[in-house]
Amino acid sequence: MTRRLSYQLASQRDDAEIRRLLRENPMGGKVSFSFEREPSYFDFLGFEGHFHQTIVAREEKENSLVGMASRGIRQYYVDGSPMDIGYLSQLRFTPSYRNLFSLKKGFKFLQQLHADGRVPFYLTSIMEGNSSAERILQSAIPGLPRYEEYCSFVTHVLSTRRSYSLKKGSTVKIELCRREQLPALLEFLQQTNCAKQFSPVWDEETLFSKERTPGVSFSDCILALEGGKIVGCMCLWDQRRFKQSVVRRYSSRISRFRPILNVAARLSGSPKLPAMNEPISHAYLSHVTIHQDREDIFKALLTRALQKARRQDISLLTVGFASNHPLQSYVEKSIKTIRSVSKIFLVYWEKEGTLPVVDRNNRIPGLEIALL
User: Fold this and answer.
1) Is 116 exposed, middle or buried (0-12, 13-18, 19+ CB in 10 A)?
2) Which structural domains are found in the chain, ordered by start?
Protein backbone atom coordinates (compact mmCIF):
# COMPACT_ATOMS: atom_id res chain seq x y z
CA MET A 1 0.00 0.00 0.00
CA THR A 2 1.35 3.43 -0.98
CA ARG A 3 1.98 5.69 1.98
CA ARG A 4 0.46 9.13 1.55
CA LEU A 5 2.62 12.25 1.44
CA SER A 6 1.61 15.83 2.07
CA TYR A 7 3.70 18.78 0.89
CA GLN A 8 3.77 22.18 2.56
CA LEU A 9 6.00 25.15 3.25
CA ALA A 10 8.28 24.65 6.22
CA SER A 11 8.10 26.76 9.34
CA GLN A 12 10.29 27.29 12.38
CA ARG A 13 8.74 24.28 14.12
CA ASP A 14 10.25 22.03 11.42
CA ASP A 15 13.79 23.19 12.19
CA ALA A 16 15.01 20.16 14.16
CA GLU A 17 13.51 17.64 11.71
CA ILE A 18 15.02 19.43 8.70
CA ARG A 19 18.46 19.39 10.30
CA ARG A 20 18.04 15.68 11.09
CA LEU A 21 17.05 14.95 7.48
CA LEU A 22 20.14 16.75 6.16
CA ARG A 23 22.38 15.01 8.67
CA GLU A 24 21.05 11.49 8.08
CA ASN A 25 20.78 11.59 4.27
CA PRO A 26 24.22 12.30 2.81
CA MET A 27 24.90 12.61 -0.90
CA GLY A 28 26.23 9.34 -2.35
CA GLY A 29 29.44 8.56 -4.21
CA LYS A 30 32.91 7.24 -3.44
CA VAL A 31 32.99 9.92 -0.76
CA SER A 32 29.60 10.50 0.86
CA PHE A 33 28.98 13.98 2.30
CA SER A 34 26.21 15.38 4.43
CA PHE A 35 25.62 19.11 3.96
CA GLU A 36 24.28 20.31 7.27
CA ARG A 37 22.81 23.46 8.79
CA GLU A 38 23.72 23.51 12.46
CA PRO A 39 22.79 24.86 14.94
CA SER A 40 19.75 26.37 13.18
CA TYR A 41 18.28 26.04 9.70
CA PHE A 42 16.01 29.08 9.78
CA ASP A 43 18.33 31.62 11.40
CA PHE A 44 20.42 31.94 8.23
CA LEU A 45 17.88 31.57 5.43
CA GLY A 46 18.77 35.03 4.11
CA PHE A 47 21.84 33.29 2.69
CA GLU A 48 19.50 31.65 0.14
CA GLY A 49 18.53 34.99 -1.43
CA HIS A 50 16.17 37.92 -0.96
CA PHE A 51 13.26 35.48 -1.25
CA HIS A 52 13.32 31.87 -0.13
CA GLN A 53 10.96 29.00 0.58
CA THR A 54 11.61 25.53 1.98
CA ILE A 55 9.28 22.71 0.98
CA VAL A 56 8.85 19.73 3.30
CA ALA A 57 7.20 16.37 2.63
CA ARG A 58 5.48 14.55 5.47
CA GLU A 59 4.22 11.00 5.72
CA GLU A 60 0.62 11.63 6.72
CA LYS A 61 0.00 8.66 9.01
CA GLU A 62 3.14 9.06 11.14
CA ASN A 63 3.42 12.82 10.52
CA SER A 64 7.17 12.36 10.05
CA LEU A 65 9.28 14.60 7.82
CA VAL A 66 10.67 12.45 4.97
CA GLY A 67 11.71 14.95 2.30
CA MET A 68 12.57 18.56 1.56
CA ALA A 69 13.73 21.01 -1.10
CA SER A 70 14.64 24.69 -1.16
CA ARG A 71 13.61 27.47 -3.55
CA GLY A 72 15.75 30.59 -3.31
CA ILE A 73 15.70 33.73 -5.45
CA ARG A 74 18.51 36.21 -5.94
CA GLN A 75 19.75 38.60 -8.60
CA TYR A 76 22.18 37.39 -11.25
CA TYR A 77 23.53 39.02 -14.38
CA VAL A 78 21.76 37.53 -17.40
CA ASP A 79 22.95 38.75 -20.79
CA GLY A 80 24.57 41.73 -19.07
CA SER A 81 21.62 42.91 -16.96
CA PRO A 82 20.46 42.12 -13.40
CA MET A 83 17.61 39.62 -13.29
CA ASP A 84 15.84 37.65 -10.56
CA ILE A 85 16.61 33.94 -11.05
CA GLY A 86 15.65 30.99 -8.85
CA TYR A 87 17.94 28.35 -7.42
CA LEU A 88 16.69 24.88 -6.46
CA SER A 89 18.72 23.05 -3.83
CA GLN A 90 18.74 20.64 -0.89
CA LEU A 91 16.53 18.04 -2.53
CA ARG A 92 16.48 15.20 0.01
CA PHE A 93 14.30 12.18 0.66
CA THR A 94 14.72 9.35 3.13
CA PRO A 95 15.63 6.14 1.23
CA SER A 96 12.15 4.59 1.26
CA TYR A 97 10.68 7.70 -0.39
CA ARG A 98 13.22 8.10 -3.17
CA ASN A 99 10.84 7.26 -6.00
CA LEU A 100 9.15 8.89 -8.95
CA PHE A 101 5.81 9.27 -7.13
CA SER A 102 7.40 11.40 -4.38
CA LEU A 103 9.33 13.44 -6.93
CA LYS A 104 6.34 14.17 -9.17
CA LYS A 105 4.15 15.18 -6.25
CA GLY A 106 6.88 17.46 -4.93
CA PHE A 107 7.36 19.15 -8.30
CA LYS A 108 3.62 19.66 -8.59
CA PHE A 109 3.72 21.58 -5.32
CA LEU A 110 6.77 23.53 -6.53
CA GLN A 111 4.96 24.43 -9.76
CA GLN A 112 2.15 25.90 -7.69
CA LEU A 113 4.69 28.07 -5.87
CA HIS A 114 6.33 28.98 -9.18
CA ALA A 115 2.98 30.38 -10.35
CA ASP A 116 3.74 33.50 -8.30
CA GLY A 117 5.71 34.63 -11.37
CA ARG A 118 8.76 35.77 -9.42
CA VAL A 119 11.25 34.12 -11.79
CA PRO A 120 11.19 32.72 -15.35
CA PHE A 121 13.44 29.73 -14.57
CA TYR A 122 15.82 28.19 -12.06
CA LEU A 123 19.39 27.03 -11.75
CA THR A 124 20.27 23.78 -10.03
CA SER A 125 23.33 21.57 -9.61
CA ILE A 126 23.69 17.78 -9.79
CA MET A 127 26.92 16.00 -8.96
CA GLU A 128 28.46 14.19 -11.93
CA GLY A 129 28.02 10.45 -11.50
CA ASN A 130 24.52 10.77 -10.04
CA SER A 131 23.22 9.03 -13.15
CA SER A 132 19.87 7.99 -11.66
CA ALA A 133 18.94 11.61 -10.83
CA GLU A 134 20.06 12.84 -14.25
CA ARG A 135 18.17 10.08 -16.04
CA ILE A 136 14.91 10.79 -14.25
CA LEU A 137 15.11 14.57 -14.34
CA GLN A 138 16.02 14.70 -18.04
CA SER A 139 13.50 12.07 -19.09
CA ALA A 140 10.63 14.45 -20.00
CA ILE A 141 8.29 12.47 -17.75
CA PRO A 142 4.89 14.21 -17.54
CA GLY A 143 4.66 16.23 -14.33
CA LEU A 144 8.37 17.08 -14.18
CA PRO A 145 9.86 20.36 -15.36
CA ARG A 146 12.37 20.53 -18.21
CA TYR A 147 16.03 20.16 -17.16
CA GLU A 148 18.36 21.67 -19.76
CA GLU A 149 22.09 21.16 -19.18
CA TYR A 150 23.89 24.52 -19.10
CA CYS A 151 27.51 23.82 -18.20
CA SER A 152 29.90 21.69 -16.18
CA PHE A 153 31.21 23.17 -12.95
CA VAL A 154 34.52 22.08 -11.42
CA THR A 155 35.06 22.33 -7.67
CA HIS A 156 38.61 22.25 -6.29
CA VAL A 157 39.62 21.63 -2.69
CA LEU A 158 43.18 22.72 -1.88
CA SER A 159 45.32 22.51 1.20
CA THR A 160 46.26 25.69 3.03
CA ARG A 161 49.70 24.16 3.65
CA ARG A 162 50.59 25.09 0.10
CA SER A 163 52.48 28.32 -0.52
CA TYR A 164 53.38 30.13 -3.70
CA SER A 165 56.10 32.62 -4.54
CA LEU A 166 55.28 35.67 -6.63
CA LYS A 167 57.46 37.08 -9.37
CA LYS A 168 59.67 39.94 -8.29
CA GLY A 169 58.81 43.30 -9.73
CA SER A 170 55.07 42.62 -9.88
CA THR A 171 53.00 45.75 -10.29
CA VAL A 172 50.09 44.19 -8.38
CA LYS A 173 49.62 45.26 -4.76
CA ILE A 174 47.59 43.05 -2.38
CA GLU A 175 45.75 44.39 0.66
CA LEU A 176 42.67 43.79 2.80
CA CYS A 177 39.60 45.78 1.89
CA ARG A 178 38.89 48.96 3.84
CA ARG A 179 35.45 50.44 4.34
CA GLU A 180 36.27 53.56 2.33
CA GLN A 181 37.07 51.34 -0.67
CA LEU A 182 33.51 49.97 -0.85
CA PRO A 183 32.26 52.29 -3.63
CA ALA A 184 35.25 51.47 -5.85
CA LEU A 185 34.91 47.74 -5.08
CA LEU A 186 31.21 47.70 -5.97
CA GLU A 187 31.91 49.53 -9.24
CA PHE A 188 34.64 46.98 -10.09
CA LEU A 189 32.40 44.00 -9.26
CA GLN A 190 29.50 45.37 -11.29
CA GLN A 191 31.59 46.22 -14.34
CA THR A 192 33.41 42.88 -14.32
CA ASN A 193 30.60 40.51 -13.31
CA CYS A 194 28.08 41.80 -15.84
CA ALA A 195 30.27 40.38 -18.63
CA LYS A 196 29.76 36.83 -17.32
CA GLN A 197 26.54 34.83 -17.29
CA PHE A 198 24.89 34.14 -13.92
CA SER A 199 27.40 36.11 -11.86
CA PRO A 200 25.74 37.32 -8.67
CA VAL A 201 24.77 40.97 -8.41
CA TRP A 202 26.37 42.60 -5.38
CA ASP A 203 25.39 45.99 -4.01
CA GLU A 204 25.94 47.99 -0.84
CA GLU A 205 23.16 46.14 1.00
CA THR A 206 24.26 42.60 0.13
CA LEU A 207 28.06 42.49 -0.23
CA PHE A 208 28.87 42.53 3.49
CA SER A 209 25.49 41.64 4.98
CA LYS A 210 24.73 39.67 8.16
CA GLU A 211 21.68 38.24 6.40
CA ARG A 212 22.86 37.69 2.82
CA THR A 213 26.59 36.99 3.32
CA PRO A 214 26.89 35.91 6.97
CA GLY A 215 30.51 35.47 7.97
CA VAL A 216 31.99 37.87 5.38
CA SER A 217 33.35 41.23 6.52
CA PHE A 218 35.68 43.85 5.09
CA SER A 219 38.66 42.08 6.67
CA ASP A 220 37.75 38.84 4.84
CA CYS A 221 37.91 40.57 1.46
CA ILE A 222 41.31 40.69 -0.27
CA LEU A 223 41.90 43.21 -3.03
CA ALA A 224 44.45 43.45 -5.82
CA LEU A 225 45.38 46.95 -6.93
CA GLU A 226 47.40 48.13 -9.90
CA GLY A 227 48.13 51.79 -10.46
CA GLY A 228 45.84 52.56 -7.53
CA LYS A 229 42.84 50.87 -9.19
CA ILE A 230 41.13 47.66 -8.05
CA VAL A 231 41.88 44.86 -10.52
CA GLY A 232 40.98 41.82 -8.45
CA CYS A 233 38.90 40.62 -5.51
CA MET A 234 38.75 37.41 -3.47
CA CYS A 235 36.99 36.75 -0.16
CA LEU A 236 37.74 34.10 2.45
CA TRP A 237 34.21 33.02 3.37
CA ASP A 238 34.07 30.71 6.39
CA GLN A 239 30.50 29.37 6.52
CA ARG A 240 31.01 26.77 9.24
CA ARG A 241 28.98 28.57 11.89
CA PHE A 242 25.80 27.97 9.85
CA LYS A 243 26.63 25.48 7.07
CA GLN A 244 28.84 22.40 7.45
CA SER A 245 30.20 19.66 5.19
CA VAL A 246 30.77 16.31 6.89
CA VAL A 247 32.25 13.13 5.39
CA ARG A 248 29.86 10.34 6.38
CA ARG A 249 31.33 7.48 4.37
CA TYR A 250 34.29 6.53 2.19
CA SER A 251 34.18 3.66 -0.26
CA SER A 252 35.83 0.53 1.10
CA ARG A 253 38.83 1.05 -1.18
CA ILE A 254 39.39 4.67 -0.17
CA SER A 255 38.83 3.85 3.50
CA ARG A 256 41.42 1.08 3.36
CA PHE A 257 44.09 3.25 1.74
CA ARG A 258 43.21 6.56 3.39
CA PRO A 259 46.19 6.53 5.85
CA ILE A 260 48.63 5.97 2.99
CA LEU A 261 46.93 8.56 0.81
CA ASN A 262 47.15 11.12 3.59
CA VAL A 263 50.87 10.51 4.09
CA ALA A 264 51.39 11.08 0.38
CA ALA A 265 49.20 14.19 0.54
CA ARG A 266 51.26 15.64 3.39
CA LEU A 267 54.49 15.12 1.44
CA SER A 268 53.13 16.61 -1.77
CA GLY A 269 51.12 19.46 -0.25
CA SER A 270 47.84 18.05 -1.58
CA PRO A 271 44.65 18.09 0.53
CA LYS A 272 44.28 15.30 3.09
CA LEU A 273 41.15 13.16 3.22
CA PRO A 274 39.24 14.38 6.30
CA ALA A 275 38.16 12.21 9.21
CA MET A 276 34.62 10.87 9.08
CA ASN A 277 31.75 12.35 11.08
CA GLU A 278 33.51 15.63 11.83
CA PRO A 279 32.84 18.97 10.12
CA ILE A 280 35.52 19.69 7.55
CA SER A 281 37.78 22.60 8.41
CA HIS A 282 37.31 24.55 5.23
CA ALA A 283 36.29 27.91 3.83
CA TYR A 284 35.31 29.12 0.37
CA LEU A 285 37.29 31.38 -1.92
CA SER A 286 34.31 33.48 -2.95
CA HIS A 287 33.66 36.69 -4.89
CA VAL A 288 36.59 35.77 -7.15
CA THR A 289 36.58 38.59 -9.67
CA ILE A 290 39.70 39.25 -11.74
CA HIS A 291 40.28 41.90 -14.40
CA GLN A 292 40.57 40.09 -17.74
CA ASP A 293 40.89 36.81 -15.76
CA ARG A 294 44.62 37.44 -15.33
CA GLU A 295 46.47 34.49 -13.80
CA ASP A 296 49.06 36.67 -12.05
CA ILE A 297 46.34 38.55 -10.16
CA PHE A 298 44.59 35.32 -9.17
CA LYS A 299 47.86 33.82 -7.90
CA ALA A 300 48.67 36.93 -5.87
CA LEU A 301 45.23 36.92 -4.25
CA LEU A 302 45.40 33.17 -3.60
CA THR A 303 48.78 33.55 -1.90
CA ARG A 304 47.37 36.09 0.57
CA ALA A 305 44.20 34.00 1.09
CA LEU A 306 46.28 30.92 1.98
CA GLN A 307 48.26 32.93 4.52
CA LYS A 308 45.09 34.32 6.05
CA ALA A 309 43.42 30.88 6.18
CA ARG A 310 46.39 29.33 7.99
CA ARG A 311 46.25 32.09 10.62
CA GLN A 312 42.55 31.27 11.13
CA ASP A 313 43.31 27.54 11.51
CA ILE A 314 41.49 26.62 8.30
CA SER A 315 42.88 23.46 6.70
CA LEU A 316 41.15 23.46 3.32
CA LEU A 317 39.90 26.00 0.81
CA THR A 318 37.25 25.40 -1.82
CA VAL A 319 37.18 27.24 -5.13
CA GLY A 320 35.23 26.50 -8.29
CA PHE A 321 34.68 27.63 -11.85
CA ALA A 322 32.74 26.58 -14.91
CA SER A 323 34.76 24.16 -17.02
CA ASN A 324 35.30 26.76 -19.76
CA HIS A 325 36.34 29.57 -17.41
CA PRO A 326 39.93 30.74 -18.08
CA LEU A 327 40.88 30.47 -14.39
CA GLN A 328 39.65 26.87 -14.29
CA SER A 329 42.40 25.83 -16.70
CA TYR A 330 44.97 27.70 -14.59
CA VAL A 331 43.91 25.94 -11.37
CA GLU A 332 43.85 22.61 -13.19
CA LYS A 333 47.42 22.88 -14.41
CA SER A 334 49.06 24.80 -11.57
CA ILE A 335 47.58 23.72 -8.23
CA LYS A 336 47.31 20.30 -6.57
CA THR A 337 43.69 19.84 -5.58
CA ILE A 338 40.96 17.29 -5.04
CA ARG A 339 38.51 18.01 -7.84
CA SER A 340 34.87 17.12 -8.35
CA VAL A 341 32.52 17.95 -11.20
CA SER A 342 28.85 18.83 -11.16
CA LYS A 343 26.43 19.75 -13.90
CA ILE A 344 24.48 22.99 -13.83
CA PHE A 345 20.96 22.82 -15.27
CA LEU A 346 18.35 25.38 -16.24
CA VAL A 347 14.94 24.26 -14.95
CA TYR A 348 11.62 25.48 -16.31
CA TRP A 349 8.11 24.31 -17.23
CA GLU A 350 7.73 23.95 -20.97
CA LYS A 351 4.01 24.64 -21.21
CA GLU A 352 4.67 28.18 -20.00
CA GLY A 353 6.63 28.81 -23.19
CA THR A 354 10.19 28.45 -24.30
CA LEU A 355 13.13 29.26 -22.07
CA PRO A 356 14.12 32.94 -22.32
CA VAL A 357 17.08 33.44 -24.62
CA VAL A 358 20.32 32.94 -22.72
CA ASP A 359 23.42 33.99 -24.65
CA ARG A 360 25.62 31.12 -23.53
CA ASN A 361 27.93 31.24 -26.54
CA ASN A 362 29.48 34.62 -25.84
CA ARG A 363 29.49 34.87 -22.06
CA ILE A 364 31.52 32.66 -19.76
CA PRO A 365 29.51 31.36 -16.78
CA GLY A 366 30.27 33.35 -13.64
CA LEU A 367 28.59 31.10 -11.07
CA GLU A 368 29.60 31.65 -7.44
CA ILE A 369 30.85 28.47 -5.69
CA ALA A 370 29.92 29.72 -2.22
CA LEU A 371 26.25 30.09 -3.21
CA LEU A 372 25.79 26.67 -4.85
Assistant:
1) exposed
2) 5-152+341-362 (3.40.630.30), 157-243+272-340 (3.40.630.30)
